[in-house]
Amino acid sequence: MRLAKMLAVATATLSLGLGVALADDSSKDWSKVVIGTEGAYPPFNFLSASGELQGFDVDVAKALCTQMKVECTFVTQNWDGIIPALQNGNFDAIIASMSITPEREQQIAFSNKYYQTPPAIAVPKDSPIEAATEQALDGKAIGAQTGTTHSQAAEALFPKSDVKVYPTAEEYKLDIGNGRLDAVMDDVVVLSEWVKSPEGACCRILGTLPADPAIYGKGAGIGLRKGDDKLKTMFDDAISAIRADGTYKTIQDKYFDFDVYGE
Questions:
Q1: Which residue range is the domain that position 60 belongs to?
Q2: pLDDT on residue 166
Q3: 45-69: burial string, b at 16+ Cβ within 10 Å, e else
Q4: What is the DSSP string of 42-101?
Q5: 227 belongs to a structural domain
Q6: Within a domain: 5
Q7: Per the structure, how many domains does the chain have?
């Protein structure tokens, strides 16, 4: 779950963006919805070898669209620009493991959460570090993806560590594999799936960390333009429906062996 980079914009540009963001959708026919996702955050959203968009986020999105009886198409968008792209009308909803945080809620609206998992720390298998504590990681280099809740939490939880940020998760994974980092921080699911793979054979999960609500917010939700209240209600109702009819569990069990929805 990730924290989008806050962007400073000129008044004219902001006004243009808000013209899209604050439009009232009460009279809009939401028979077609364009969904934006990153496509680089396995197992939540990623591109297969053949270029097909896959992952938990994608399967949940498809189930929600079926429940809402709308035609959905997907576009991929770099993480740093995903909120401005939504505000500018490039797509109608962000389904990309985006945490519902106070900072983001100043910019966009959110559906109710559709999952919530804790952060974790991974280290090389031969690392002498045995605890995910400030003392154990004092002076150590910790990698995280830039503009995410995990990078923000790393700075807050490990003030005496050297937190290094990377444009994508794949880049910090390469650096810890090559011995340039002492630890990395991300969602426990992302790191757990990675260390089980051949690419993550270098490393092990050190432990999970408390998800501070001040940083991690209320879980991962669907990002929407402010003013698109009708679409928000449609997504909220659909999330409740797929949870109730077992569709959510079927999707969850395809990727995980535990409940990712949280409390």
A1: 11-116+218-255
A2: 97
A3: bbeeeeeebbbbbbbbbbbbbebbe
A4: TTTEEE-TTS-EESHHHHHHHHHHHHHT-EEEEEE--GGGHHHHHHTTS-SEEEEEEE--
A5: yes
A6: no
A7: 2
